[in-house]
Amino acid sequence: MPAPAERLTHLREELRARRLDGFLAPRTDAFMGEYMPACAERVQWLTGFAGSAGFVGVAMESAAIFVDGRYTLQVRDQVDVEAFVPRSIADEPPTAWIAESFEAGARIGYDPWLHTRAGLKRLADAAAEIGAELIALDDNPIDAVWTNRPAFPDAPVHAHGLEFAGESSEDKRLRLGADLARRNIDAAVVTASDSVAWLLNIRGADVPNCPLALSYVILASDGTVDWFIDPAKVDETVREALGDAVAIRPLAEFAGALEALGTDGARIQADPTGSPVAVFDRLMAGGAEIAERADPCLLPKARKNEIEVEGARIAHRRDGAALAAFLHWLDETAPGGTITELDAIEKLHDLRTRGERFHGPSFDTIAGYGGNGAIVHYRASEETNRRIEPGSLLLVDSGGQYDEGTTDVTRTIAIGMPSDEMSKRFTQVLKGHIAIATARFPTGVTGSQLDPFARAALWADGVDYDHGTGHGVGSFLNVHEGPQRISKGHSTTALEMGMIVSNEPGYYKTDGFGIRIENLVVVYPVIDIPADAEKDLLGFETLTLAPIDRRLIDPALLSAAERQWLDDYHARVLEEIRPMVEDPVRDWLERACAPLDA
């Protein structure tokens, strides 16, 4: 296999043959998802960079790879910096690189299936300022020089039963179609694979960690659907479940179908922030009137129905039993200094596989000991793997995919005796976690309005954490699901009943230790509201069931109400998980869930 520098040479030869002066390559695929199949990992093949976010710009005399702050060190370890100059995507963005690297008249290629409309506009404006032009390509030039490129995934699709989905695909399609009709929209283009999965009540296995079948949908206002997917992946059981109102068509027909929508001047809804710009190009080529609106599945998918919420509770009980067994194992083995981060990851996965209806992790497990735990998106490898031994903290962030739901949980565990500093910071993080868990708020409140609750105890001490407090979570779907979130960034999406979000404040001391406490919570209506309340109130039900390490808590820093919340939470964990485990895990769980003053 050629080295990255040689691959770059072959790519430049391909660009010259196409009369192009450069090429722009974001790390994404035509479905714009967080996880991609191997055949779409073009940035990794070209550069060697394996991070989850990146952007490559190639000119004839220079090339650059753009990453965010998570990958400053990783990019230099994995990439030939003589061939691809690392740049901060925030401080030295691709727009600035375009101005530096090209001259007037330059023709810069791009793959219209890999850029959103909003993202491409910024790049096109930067090119226009210097008199250069962006050129949409019919095929990706990296694919032309990628030898032994993996095939597009062919995993079979399976039906996601009504006992898990809580609403039939027909009812979803008719409900969303009627909404389109009310707004005089003839059809909506749905390009997010998790939205397709939710709408059709199907699941797949085309990408790591998320049960997705990579495909597209055109939803008509009468509730009928054209589903673009390899027909060989759809068996008779799925076809019968969907019925005649869903036409299964080859993925290769999608572009032509978009153009055909415009022949009668149809009004078509498409998402400018989540769909490839190619969707808009094809719709306009056919003469369609485009209504730029968010994916119609986005909010309905986020509002979990009663069956999905109950499924989440079931999934978290199963996950809690595996976590109890893992935490017991860790307490028994870690003090001896014989296990590593990779050992912990393997053990937790093994314990989850023993549970019912488990399909795999919901993301790659993070297990960071000591200073590695201070790296927010750390991934243990053979090169970074550390031995777990007394003297610091182990942060474990993991999750599972179950038929009933998706889990995501972080626990920070003391290995040996924690320092006073560790206990102080852990307790401040816990105070923020409890503040979110116990929040009561009027309808219409967004997650950005709640975010300061989680940070107040840390802010008072002059410290903070540089990530969001919470992200949305799917129902046996993506572990990161929008549009709901809890973060500093302004959010216009109000938290609504049935939405599941994470509650995960943290603290990170560079080269020292990392702390994060994460539970998933679901929004529910508060019943016992004051008699003179002027608005309905919402609150959170905690779904995750796993002990919080009492050895790290400084009780003097907790209020009476906070202590009561912790004791009540642990009593609930013990009540729900104890019947699912056996000794010696059961004995350990009883000790781990004892009242704080016991």
UniProtKB/TrEMBL annotation:
Which keywords are on file for this protein?
Answer: Aminopeptidase, Hydrolase, Metal-binding, Metalloprotease, Protease
Q: Which GO terms describe its molecular function?
A: metal ion binding; metalloaminopeptidase activity
Q: Which Pfam families match?
A: Creatinase_N, Creatinase_N_2, Peptidase_M24, Peptidase_M24_C
Listed under GO biological process in this entry are: proteolysis
Q: Which residues form the Peptidase M24 domain?
A: 312-523
- Entry GO terms, CC: cytoplasm
Domain Creatinase N-terminal, first and last residues per copy: 7-128
Write down the CDD domains for this protein, in alphabetical order: APP
Please indicate if the UniProt record lists Protease as a keyword.
yes
- Spell out the Gene3D superfamilies in the cross-references: Creatinase/methionine aminopeptidase superfamily (3.90.230.10), Creatinase/prolidase N-terminal domain (3.40.350.10)
Which part of the chain is the Peptidase M24 C-terminal domain? 537-596
The similarity annotation says: Belongs to the peptidase M24B family.
Name of the featured protein: Aminopeptidase P family protein
| Higher taxonomy | Bacteria, Pseudomonadati, Pseudomonadota, Alphaproteobacteria, Rhodospirillales
